[in-house]
Amino acid sequence: MKRLRVPSEFLAVRFVRRLGDPPRMRGSHSNETCPDLFELSDGNFAVIGTEATEVLEPLLPSDAARADYERIVVISRDTLIRAKKDIPDA
């Protein structure tokens, strides 16, 4: 397995809060399908989703790109809609 190069600034961040409802409230009772969104202590956001880089990268718009350490992940529409109330406007 290829080892990912992770930017060093990620080493000091902490999870501050979940955005939206926990997976169990969205119907995940097995802990096997748990897309999730979190706010991080540095003001950024972390996403747990289905890794889909290989499939979706060729379909990216021409003005989009990703670094070697970035991945394309997919979360369900329901996960994002339920998180909307917790996402700041600015």
Which features would summarize this protein structure in a list?
5 strands; 90 residues; 12% helix; single chain; two-stranded antiparallel ribbon; alpha+beta; 3-stranded antiparallel beta sheet
Distance between the termini: 38 Å
Strand order of the largest sheet: 1-2-3
Which parts are unreliable, with pLDDT below 50 for 5 consecutive residues or more?
Answer: none
Question: Could you say which overall geometry the principal axes of the C-alpha atoms support?
Answer: globular
Largest beta-sheet characterization: 3 strands, antiparallel
Elements, N to C (H/E): EEEEHEH
Quantity of strands, as a count: 5
Helix content: 10-25%
Quaternary status: single chain
User: What is the alpha-carbon Rg in Å?
Assistant: 15 Å
Quick check: average pLDDT?
Answer: 86
Q: State the helix count.
A: 2
Name the beta content range: 15-25%
Coarse structural class: alpha+beta
